[in-house]
Amino acid sequence: MARINENFLKLQAGYLFPEIGRRVKAFCAANPEADVIKMGIGDVTQPLPSAIIKAMHTAVDEMASSETFRGYGPEQGYGFLREAIAKNDYQQFGIQVDADEIFVSDGSKCDGGNILDIFGDDNRIAVLDPVYPVYVDTNVMAGHTGPADDNGRYEKLVYMAVTAENNFEPELPSEPVDIIYLCYPNNPTGVVATHAMLSKWVEYAEKNNSIILYDAAYAAFVSDPEIPRSIFEIPGARKVAIEMRSFSKNAGFTGIRCAFTVVPKELMGSTKSGEQHAIHTLWNRRHCTKFNGVSYPVQRGAEAAYSEEGKAQINELIDFYMNNAKLLREGLTAMGFEVFGGENAPYVWIKTPAETTSWEFFDHLLEKCHIVGTPGSGFGAAGEGYFRLSAFNSLENTEAALKRIQDSVSAGIQ
Ligand code: MLT
Prior knowledge:
Layout (H helix, E strand, L loop, with lengths): L15 H15 L6 E2 L11 H13 L16 H12 L11 E4 L2 H7 L10 E5 L3 H9 L15 E5 L17 E5 L11 H14 L2 E5 L25 E6 L12 E4 L5 E3 L5 E3 H12 L5 H9 L3 H27 L4 E3 L5 E5 L6 H12 L1 E2 L1 E2 L10 E5 L4 H16 L4
Parallel strand pairs: 1-13, 3-4, 3-5, 5-6, 6-7
Antiparallel strand pairs: 2-8, 7-8, 9-10, 11-12, 12-15, 14-15
Helix pairs in contact: 2-8, 3-8, 4-5, 9-11
C-alpha cells in the first residue's frame, strides 16, 4: 500500500480558516435568518480597480489573435512586471533590488510553503507566537518539527511570544536559529516593526548566519513614513533576507492570484560540509521546475497596479480599508476594549474580556452579534485571550458590526 507523509498526522485539527468556515456554516444552517458579518479571514471585498480590469481585458484580447497570442511565459514572471515591481516598490525609494531578483508567483502563502523545498531538514526555525499558521504548518508537513504539545506548540520550533506584556516586540532567540520568519505589518496582531527592531534582526542574522523570511504582504498599508515597508531598507539585509509581497490585499487580488518573492543574489546558504551556495540559484531552479508562471492577463493586471491611474485607485482602496480599521480601533477602544494594531495594518487585535478565551469570544460574537472574527489562540498559544478583526469589509458592515458589539456590551454581556 502507498505510504503517506506521516508528518501530516502531527497537524492540529484543521487549518484555521477552514475550521472557522466550518463553524460558521453550521451556525448559519441552524440560524438561516441570521445576517452574519464576516470579519474573520482577511479577504478583500471591493471590486478590482478599473485600471487593472482594463489591462486584463486588453491582455485577454491579445490572446484572441494569432499575432499577439502568448503561450508559456517566463517562469520567473514577465520582464515588464518584474521591472515595474523593482522600480516602484524598491528603486524609487533608494532600495537596491534588481528585476532579476524578483520571482513572480501565485501567492505569498504558496511561496511561504514552497520556499522550504530549498532548505535542509535540520535547520532550527523560529517563529513569532501568535503567527500566520502557514509558516508553522508547512514546516510540520515538511517534517521539520516533532509532535505538538498541549498548547499546540511543536517540538523543535522556537517560538517567540509577542503579547501586550512585551509590547509585541519579540526577544531575540536565546539559542542560535537558522531560519526566522518575520511578518510586518504583522498578521495577526496588526503591529508594525520599527527600523531599530528590524536592524536588530538583521544584525542577529548576520552574526548567526541565519536567513530571515520576511513576509511583507501588508506593506502597502503602512502610512507612517518612519515605519519600514521593506526589510531591504535595513543595511545588510540583502545578505540575510528574502522578502515576500503580494497583490492580494492592496490591489484586491485574493481571487486573481499574483505575488512575488525577492531573493537577493548575495544571499547564501550552506551545505552540511560548509560549502556556500546562492539561494537565488536554488530558488530559480525550484521555481522553473515546479511552476510555469502566473497567467499573462494577471501579470498585465498586476503591472497596471503601478500605472499612475492604478496607483491612485489602489491608494483609494487602501484608504477605504484603513478607514474601517480606524473605526474599529476607535469604536472598540471607546467600548472599553484594549485594542492593538489597525494603524498601519488592516487588522485590529483586541484583548478578550477577562476570563474569556479566544474561542469563547468567537462563539459569543457569532451567536449574539452574528459577527465572525478570528480567535487569537488559532494563531498560537500566545494568542490566547486575544481576538482579530479584519478591516476588509464594506463601511456599512463595519459600522453595523460596531453597533452590534456596542449593543452587546451595553447589555452587559461583553
Ligand atoms: C488572513 O486572514 O490571515 C489571511 O487572509 C490569510 C491569507 O492571506 O492567506
